């Protein structure tokens, strides 16, 4: 028997029948008790068990983006005195002798998989436009040393990545989108998540998959995130149902992220704003207190010295999927967008892709909207995870169904460039907004010459 024949005889044979796949065992294992070799599904309690070694490391901002940097991480409950170290990054390893150590804070989180400790620390008095190296731990058990670069304190060109809903099958299907996006824009300044990071707010396994999908990128590129409806739970970890209409924010949200506390009372770290290199980014929560947010946003945008304004929210102003509409949100918020000339609104929730032209709000309560090249805001609905819905009849400029996407957005002076790409990195939609003093933005369409990815007859 030659080598090739031996390899064939010892190989696992795969028989594909329709949508199912069957494995026939190699010849030398046939006849054994298959219970001894059959794989077993790994238990979530083991897969996502915390230890004294830091994991789930996430960079965020709680204060000025150019001079501070917040970091959160998780351990088991044995760690009660967290610390973080930071130094200027150098070309060799001797920065370790110059590292500054600061004490962190700890809060206990009890999830469906047990108790853990979440820690946070904030680096302050940083120098803008500077590469730093940091690590987190307990003084004995440490993470790796990780780089981050502080932004400029002045307007400068930059790029960021925007994701619609991740939500489902994060390990199986969302992870590749995150990695493709990072490979496409490795010098992006941050990642923006427009809600529904997970599907079930109280399942620690899903949060574990979200962290694993982002991996070490979460520790290098800061995250800006807002909660979607799936970050709100209908019951607690013991199965006790909350009163009707009283869903509660995921217990993981605030331990996982350190966001500004400059939003309306009762919506801390779910509604906030921050300024980044000439852009005001306003983060909204479509789950609660819609009117209060409108009043708050009106004040935030009235006192806005930045050239560009970006808003992110979960439930969209113009829905992209069937049997969905949000007139209460549209009537409350879109007039504020119009009044303050918001440039672009980045959204999720609808599990299909839809991108408008420049839009203004008219006839409150009727759902009427106007596409106007002489006025208005750009609205985008996107999805990065595998859950997909039918599109609706609204006439978006560019649509997609059954397509996972990520968006790369770049701002350089008076130009905003938007590129939506599929999970395989192919350009699917694109446009440019040019800022003009005293006039509406100039919209330049750059849609690629490829058909829209739509389900046949899905509107019928």
Overview of the structural elements:
The chain has helices at residues 3-10, 44-47, 170-184, 204-214, 253-256, 290-302, 327-339; strands at residues 13-17, 20-24, 55-60, 69-75, 83-88, 100-103, 105-111, 114-123, 131-137, 146-149, 158-163, 191-193, 223-225, 232-233, 248-249, 272-276, 279-283, 308-312, 344-347, 353-361, 369-371, 377-381, 398-400, 405-412, 415-422, 427-434, 442-445. Strands 16, 17, 18, 19, 20, 21, 22 and 23 form an 8-stranded mixed β-sheet that branches. A 7-stranded mixed β-sheet has the order 13-12-11-24-25-26-27, covered by helices on one side. Helices cover 15% and strands 31% of the residues. Strand 1 (13-17) and strand 2 form a beta hairpin. The protein contains 7 helices and 27 strands. The radius of gyration is 24 Å and the shape is globular. It is of the alpha+beta class. 40% of the residues are buried.
What is the structure about, briefly put?
With 460 residues, the chain is of the alpha+beta class. The chain is built from seven helices and 27 strands.
Output the keywords.
globular; 7-stranded mixed sheet; disordered N terminus; alpha+beta; 27 strands; 8-stranded mixed sheet; 460 residues
| Percent range of helical residues | 10-25%
**Low-pLDDT segments:** 1-29, 364-368
Q: Mean pLDDT score, rounded?
A: 90
Based on CA inertia axes, which overall geometry fits? globular
Characterize the quaternary organization of these chains.
Answer: single chain
Which structural class is indicated by helix and strand composition? Answer: alpha+beta
* Biggest sheet architecture: 8 strands, mixed
Distance between the first and last residues' Cα: 61 Å
Rg for CA atoms: 24 Å
The total of helices stands at: 7
Count of strand segments: 27
Strand content: 25-35%
């Amino acid at each position: 028997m030659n080598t090739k024949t031996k390899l064939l005889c010892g190989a696992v044979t795969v028989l594909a029948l329709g949508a199912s796949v069957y494995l026939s065992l190699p010849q030398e294992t046939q006849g054994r008790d298959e219970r001894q070799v059959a794989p077993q599904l790994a238990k979530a309690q083991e897969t996502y068990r915390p230890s004294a070694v830091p994991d789930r490391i996430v960079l965020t901002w709680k204060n000025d983006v150019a001079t501070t940097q917040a970091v959160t991480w998780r351990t088991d409950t044995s760690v009660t005195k967290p610390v973080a170290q930071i130094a200027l990054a150098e070309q060799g390893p001797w920065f370790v002798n110059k590292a500054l150590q600061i004490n962190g804070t700890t809060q206990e989180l009890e999830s469906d998989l047990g108790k853990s400790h979440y820690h946070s620390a904030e680096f302050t008095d940083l120098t803008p436009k500077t590469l730093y190296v940091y690590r987190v731990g307990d003084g004995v058990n440490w993470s790796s040393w990780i780089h981050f670069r502080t932004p400029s304190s002045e307007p400068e060109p930059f790029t960021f990545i925007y994701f619609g809903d991740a939500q489902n099958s994060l390990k199986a299907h969302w992870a590749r989108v995150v990695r493709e996006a990072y490979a496409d824009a490795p010098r992006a300044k941050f990642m923006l998540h427009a809600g529904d990071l997970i599907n079930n707010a109280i399942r620690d396994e899903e949060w574990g998959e979200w962290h694993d999908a982002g991996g070490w990128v979460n520790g290098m590129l800061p995250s800006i995130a807002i909660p979607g409806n799936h970050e709100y739970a209908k019951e607690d970890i013991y199965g006790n149902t909350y009163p009707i209409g009283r869903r509660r924010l995921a217990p993981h949200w605030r331990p996982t992220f350190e966001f500004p506390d400059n939003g309306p009372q009762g919506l801390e770290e779910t509604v906030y704003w921050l300024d980044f290199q000439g852009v005001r980014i306003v983060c909204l929560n479509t789950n609660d207190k819609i009117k209060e947010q409108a009043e708050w946003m009106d004040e935030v945008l009235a006192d806005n010295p930045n050239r560009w304004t970006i808003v992110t929210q979960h439930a969209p102003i113009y829905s992209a999927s069937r049997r969905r509409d949000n007139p209460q949100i549209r009537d409350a918020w879109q007039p504020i967008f119009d009044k303050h000339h918001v440039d672009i609104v980045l959204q999720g929730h609808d599990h299909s892709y839809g991108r408008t032209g420049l839009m203004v709000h008219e006839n409150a309560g009727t759902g009427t909207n106007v596409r106007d090249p002489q006025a208005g805001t750009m609205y985008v609905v996107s999805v990065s995870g595998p859950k997909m819905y039918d599109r609706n009849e609204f006439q978006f400029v560019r649509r997609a169904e059954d397509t996972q996407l990520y968006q790369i957005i770049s701002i350089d002076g008076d130009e905003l460039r938007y590129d939506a790409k599929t999970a395989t990195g192919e350009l699917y939609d694109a446009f440019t907004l040019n800022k003009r003093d005293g006039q509406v933005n100039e919209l330049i369409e750059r849609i690629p010459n490829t058909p829209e990815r739509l389900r046949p007859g899905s509107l019928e």
